[in-house]
Amino acid sequence: MGLSNASEDLSSEMEVDAFRRLFPLRYFERHLAESIRPDGRPLGKARETSIFLGAVASANGSALVKIGSTTMLTAIKMEVMTPSLESPDEGCLAIDFHMPPICSPIVRPGRPAEASPVVSKQLSDTISSSRMIDLKELSLVGGKAAWMAYLNAAFSIMQDIYCLDADGALFDAALISAVAALSHLQIPAVAMNDDGKIVLVSGEDGQKPVNKEKRKLTLRSIPFSLTCILHKNYILADPTAEEESIMETHVTIVLDTSGQLISLYKPGGPALAYTSAIQDCVGLTGQRVKELKSYLDKENSAMEVVV
Amino acid sequence: MEYVSPEGLRLDGRRPMEMRQIRAEIGAVSKADGSAIFEMGNTKVIAAVYGPREVQNRNQQISSHALVRCEYSMANFSTGDRMRKPKGDRRSTEISLVIRQTMEACILTHLLPRSQIDIYVQVLQADGGTRSACINAATLALADAGIPMRDLVTSCSAGYLNSTPLLDLNYVEDSAGGPDVTLGILPKLDKVTLLQMDSKLPIDILENVMQLAIEGCKAIANYIREVLLENTKQLEYRRGV
């Protein structure tokens, strides 16, 4: 008797799975009618999020972020550069977003994934327009005349973001990991050697550092984002890859921790967004920003305890 | 430079025949058919397997067996200095080929005709022995994907510095310019699938170094079996078997 029940369960399970594959939109809409999603989340709820700082030992700053299954690993390497003539007292921030073929069955070797340059550009624009980092902080200036030759030198922050698992909301996860890595970043102390080259100062050297001792960047109002899907009258926060592929209208909103709107991105899609829907998305983003800020603060304070 | 102290300790405090700490985790990439993270000391790699699936380029389809493809790449931040060109350089191409040929030797490709198996390996942190770590990660990922194999493939390196055979070289030891033997074996069948050596080495010493590498491979094989067994138990528990 128990055996027949088990086989019945299996057949119904198979039917559900087949229905999901054959009619994905109808499958999702049946759930949406009950104000729930197939993974059990309410419509406005984001997936479980975790932040781990210092994931890469060989980097100056790093963070591993998971939103559900979406996984991003960001690492920062500091390099010394000659600043541009327009801003001689500023460093620079370069962001590269990578989608290696391990992250998704859609990404194949050879040609880079379509999303890579788009997300890279969005991240650069978001971080620069949020004015989270004062680039003057990256300038290297010696107080003595002996350092004059090196007055026009600064750090450049080379930030590489690797998507290890692409399961939706890539920009959100990439932005959190970029911000988390910047919060973990320690600017190394450097000095000029006899050849006039800049070298990292190790504890034993008698060299006098050009900049202050190892220090952290001062981060002002930090930007966080939330991607929502608009489908009929429903707003789904933090979509999975499956949801993104079925319901094509996305809205990504970036707010900073002071509540200012940094950017709003709605790349087309069949659903036309009403002002009220956009405002609802902004409201959801506001809640999400508070949540993410608390996660990051908690992780940073835990790191300080470890140090 | 002295790589082995008079007390018989290496630069990182290990004994000559001691391996670095290894750690493995299965199922790191949700979208992949099989995936694994493998760590050997400070070397960390992640492998993902997609397949068997339809052959992307029909011209490459083989009617008698599966097509195995492999891509090895290093993250820009994986080494001391940031890498400018982490993919497509000659070293990456060579390691991709080595991994592919090593894995092809153990996959029962004849059971999967007209299909394609993609193995992607990404180095997140490099501290010597990346190709060994990649082969071990790929083995775990293939097992996780349920790809039929003759046996597990495990790999380990060994070298010869300061007249001492050393097991599982780190980056500093690897860069010393001494002989470096990378070995891949099928532990149950007791067969060698990969053997690479750089620099000159007398034949009598090669036997000792190779034997040391075999011991390392067998130790890794035991650990990998434990990890797979634990993973299977967890799957059984989740499915209520």
Automatic annotation (TrEMBL), chain A:
Alphabetical keyword list: Cytoplasm, Exosome, Nucleus, RNA-binding, rRNA processing
Domain of life: Eukaryota
Entries under CDD domains matching the protein: RNase_PH_RRP43
Gene3D superfamilies: GHMP Kinase, N-terminal domain
Residue span(s) of domain Exoribonuclease phosphorolytic: 46-188, 222-271
GO biological process, one term: U5 snRNA 3'-end processing
Localization: Cytoplasm; Nucleus, Nucleolus
GO CC annotation terms, alphabetical: cytoplasmic exosome (RNase complex); nuclear exosome (RNase complex); nucleolus
Segments passing through the bilayer: none
Pfam families named among the record's database cross-references: RNase_PH, RNase_PH_C
InterPro entries per UniProt: ExoRNase_PH_dom1, ExoRNase_PH_dom2, ExoRNase_PH_dom2_sf, Exosome_comp_Rrp42_subfam, PNPase/RNase_PH_dom_sf, Ribosomal_Su5_D2-typ_SF, Rrp43
Cited SUPFAM superfamilies: Ribonuclease PH domain 2-like (SSF55666), Ribosomal protein S5 domain 2-like (SSF54211)
GO molecular-function term, one example from the UniProt record: mRNA 3'-UTR AU-rich region binding
Family recorded in the similarity comment: Belongs to the RNase PH family.
Name recorded for this polypeptide: Ribosomal RNA-processing protein 43
Organism in which the protein naturally occurs: Glycine max (Soybean)
UniProtKB/TrEMBL annotation, chain B:
Family classification: Belongs to the RNase PH family.
Keyword ATP-binding part of the UniProt annotation: no
Molecular function via GO: RNA binding
InterPro entries hit by this protein: ExoRNase_PH_dom1, ExoRNase_PH_dom2, ExoRNase_PH_dom2_sf, PNPase/RNase_PH_dom_sf, Ribosomal_Su5_D2-typ_SF, RNase_PH
Main location class: cytoplasm
Gene Ontology terms: cellular component: cytoplasmic exosome (RNase complex); nuclear exosome (RNase complex); nucleolus
Gene3D superfamilies from the UniProt entry: GHMP Kinase, N-terminal domain (3.30.230.70)
GO biological process, one term: nuclear mRNA surveillance
Keywords: Cytoplasm, Exosome
Residue span, Exoribonuclease phosphorolytic domain: 18-148, 151-216
Name of the protein described by the UniProt record: Exosome complex component RRP41-like isoform A
CDD domains found in the cross-reference section: RNase_PH_RRP41
Organism expressing this protein natively: Glycine soja
